[in-house]
Amino acid sequence: MLTVKNDEKASKYIPYSNKKLCWHTDGYYNKTENHIKAFLLHCVNPAINGGENFLLDHELIYIHLRDLNLKFIKALMHPKAMTIPANIENGSEIRPEQTGPVFFIDTKTGNLQMRFTARQKNIHWRDDSATKEAVSCLMEYLESNSKYIFSYKLKAGEGLIANNILHGRSEFSDDKNQRRVFFRARYCNGIGQKNSKK
User: Fold this and answer.
1) 147 burial level (CB within 10 Å; 0-12, 13-18, 19+)
2) Which single residue of 76, 133, 184, 194 could bond 102 by disulfide (Cβ 3.0 to 4.6 Å)?
3) What are 46-72's pLDDT values in tens digits?
């Protein structure tokens, strides 16, 4: 369940706060073999103010970057393109460091996949000019007014089912009579995608 949580552990994670949730794909800190391929969001209660979801098909950003410069794709498909540091809590490793590409081809299905987060902290990009340029162009597109970027505020009872596309959420505010409450499910199989590579 996604809602504002005040306990010390959960409050450290943006999805359980009312802060803006930047562009990302779910499970970007997973190993590529455990990649999330689809997700579901169900709105129980919307926020009083804010809380819109924004969405972008990752295949469109791939095409955009490819058409700008093929070296961007090569850089973002490098196996060491993006590193998420280990998650350490009270001296214990909750999740190990994870390094991998931004774009990659699922070996089981042949489909294009993406792992990405626009967060600025606790992330390391491969230190070369092509990667820096590619990330800069990607971020510039995400902040643009592209007609392919959709924004929508789900109403109570509405939901969203999608492959693991780029998505995020604007900041929001609750009041004592209504809290923003969402249910989320993640899937290891894509929606409408072939199950095996021919």
Assistant:
1) exposed
2) 76
3) 999 999 999 999 999 999 999 999 999
